[in-house]
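hiii, so i know i said id send this last week but things got crazy w the move. better late than never?? heres the sequnce for the chain we talked about at the cafe, plus the structure i predicted for it. fair warning i was half asleep when i ran it
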Amino acid sequence: MIRPILSDYKISEKIKIAETKTYEDFGATKDDLEDALRDTRRELGDLQNTMYAHGKYSVLVCLQGMDTSGKDSLIREVFKSFNARGVDVHSFKVPTELELKHDYLWRHYIALPARGKFGVFNRTHYENVLVTRVHPGYILGENLPNVTDISHVNEAFWDRRFEQIVNFEKTLAENGTLIYKFFLNLSKDEQKNRLLRRLRKQEKNWKFSPGDLKERKLWPKYMECYEDVLNRTSTSFAPWYCVPADNKPAARYIVASILLEELQKYNDIKEPDLDPEVAARIDEFRNQLENE
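okay and structure toks below
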């Protein structure tokens, strides 16, 4: 079976996004990659069932990437073999009026997975140092007491926000949440192809927004901000993985493989022992049912 090398994607030292890969296929066909993903996600689903019974860890999967990077389809394909009760997906869009009445991490905190479950954030708390950094005027909408003018949204402001995010993740990790963050590294050329596909196929038209083209013009600024995010917030307790996203089947397989390989390192994740009194009467209970 094709096996991605985890260290090829994990951000453990400073990187330059311009020097990273956006395409991977492992020399395999689309069918080969889909077969490999099918086997891997089945193992992931079994492991999640064990985690649910174990009940001491939760898993937070964070997905970030430019528009059309494949987040939605990746979630659909990677978690297809999960028991529905074992995974919750949250897609964070423009903050609501209620959400703006709280700090920017509040809506993410209340969406965190319970012990024994996977939580998937489709776009994440990092939007607060990505989109808002590209469009700093958005910060004024948060009604912060010490930010009343765009000049207050300076480097010191962003330094504090990065520190807050790292501390947020550290607190989660110290309390049993296993955090894995994936940047779907899409090339600008491939984004163009995917946007054109949305325009050419009538059934895909609904996905297109003129705003996509406006944001596309800001590509260099977004890449600058993403690079800063990856370099400043990839930690031992909440690592980032830079995943080539131009080839969707390979990207999905890479993410699934990383999750499986990392989670298999936790040897303490196992089903709880059966109550000794119940265990001693297993044969009795089986005979009772068989002889009904």
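btw The mean pLDDT is 95. thought thatd interest u
miss u guys!!
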